[in-house]
Amino acid sequence: WIDEIITMIAGASDTVVSALSFLLLTIGHHPEVQERMFMEIQEVMGDLDRDVTAADVKAMKYLDQVILESLRLHGTSFLIMRRATNDTKIDSCTLPAGSRVMIMLHALGSNKKTVPKS
Questions:
Q1: Contact 38, 48 (CB under 8 A)
Q2: What pLDDT is stored for residue 54 in this prediction?
Q3: Are 85 and 66 within one domain?
Q4: For this UniProt entry, which segments traverse the membrane (predicted)?
Q5: Rounded to an integer, what is the distance from CA 72 to the centroid of its chain?
C-alpha cells in the first residue's frame, strides 16, 4: 500500500507542477496579460506587503480567467475514457450502447465549434 500512496502523492504534485509551469510559460509569452494581472493584483491587494486572503483571490476575476484559459490550452489530462450508456448518433457515426469512448481533451478545448475564439 505504500507504493499506492507514493504514486498518488507523486501524481497529485506532478499535475500541479505541470499546470503551474504551463501557466508561467503562457503568461511569459504574453507580457500584456502579465501586466494586466499585476495591475489587478495591485488594485485588489492595495498593500502588497500583506498576506493574500481568500476574499482577495475571489476578487481577482482576470487572474481566474487566465488560469482557466491556461488549463484549457494546456490541461494536465490528455484524454478521458467514457462508456456510451445509449445508442448515440454523431454525424454519420453511431456509437452502440456500451461502447468505450476516448475523448481527447486538448482537441475538445481547441475545437472552433466548441470554443470559437481558440
A1: no
A2: 95
A3: no
A4: 6-27
A5: 4
Whole-angstrom CA distances from 95 to 14, 51, 59, 104 are 34, 53, 44, 17
Of 60, 74, 59, whose CA–CA distance to 27 is shortest? 74
Our count of domains for the chain comes to 2
**What pLDDT, in 10s, does the model give residues 51-72?**
999 999 999 999 999 999 898 8
Domain ranges, residue 45: 2-73
Q: At what angle do helices 61-73 and 31-45 cross, to 10 degrees?
A: 140
The owner of cell 448515440 is 88
Q: What is the value of pTM for the model shown? A: 0.66
CA distance 96 to 115: 28
Looking at the structure, tell me whether residues 40 and 91 fall in a common domain: no
Q: What is the DSSP letter of 30?
A: -
Q: Is residue 118 part of a domain?
A: no
Distance CA(77)–CA(98), nearest Å, equals: 23
